[in-house]
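Let us practice reading a record.
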Amino acid sequence: MAILSKGQTFADADAVTSTKLNNIVDNAAFVTGSSGSTDDSSLEVNGSGRLQVKDGGISAAKLGAGVITNAKLADSTSAITGVTYSKIQYVANMKALGNTTGALAAPSEVSIFDEDDMVSDSATSLATQQSIKAYVDTTVTAAKVTPGTAVATTSGTSIDLTGLPSTVQRLFVILNGVSSNGTNDIGLQLGDSGGFETTGYDGAVSWDAGRTSFTSYYQLTEGLSSSSTCYGIVSLVKVSGTTWIATSNMSRGDNSYVFSMAGSKTLSGTLTQVRLMLTGANTFDAGEVNIYYE
């Protein structure tokens, strides 16, 4: 099999000259075709008799490991130049390429979670926009202050405010011009599914003239008269489980006293209702009460 065609042909008895010797080399050319100097697959002979790489002729098997470097890749100057998306390895569903190792490392697949409650609590995963919005919407909704409906305190010895959701963490009871037809003081009791609880309250109410402790309810006032009208807010905060801490500031309306109260109460169950009450047989005759909770 000939690889080169000679640049000079000799016949019998031809004289060897320097010109003919030079012609052997200078005028030699590679033989074309499948029986010649190339496989005509990766290499070919061009029209000048020179070897060249055939178009599309270098296969993956002909490339050495690591021979294609970053410097040999085209820079991206548009949406279709450089390494295109279609040339990147496929990524599994709900995965993104990233590095969560905490150190310099090759990228790997990072999970994308679509969890409205963020239950996985992962420090190395991503969340979808929809799940973030759902979680924030739920959290903000749960944490927002919800108003109740004002109830007139114009009759009866107690006013029950019911229907509190089990998720309540903080509760405000607002008294606006509340009074009675006698000298009974005003108290507040907490209730759960078993009813209102009348024991286990621990605290005291103080005012300019003294201090009074209580055990059967949160006592909000002391020394009222039939002409007293009370304004103020009772704040209840759940500490843990079913234990509630209460504080309040209440004015008597005639500016003669300001009552301050603090106390605690552990319920038998989840708080579901509160009762504004009078400490004796008198009845309410003016004002209103409302609640706000979160």
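A brief commentary: Helices lie at 18-26, 129-143.
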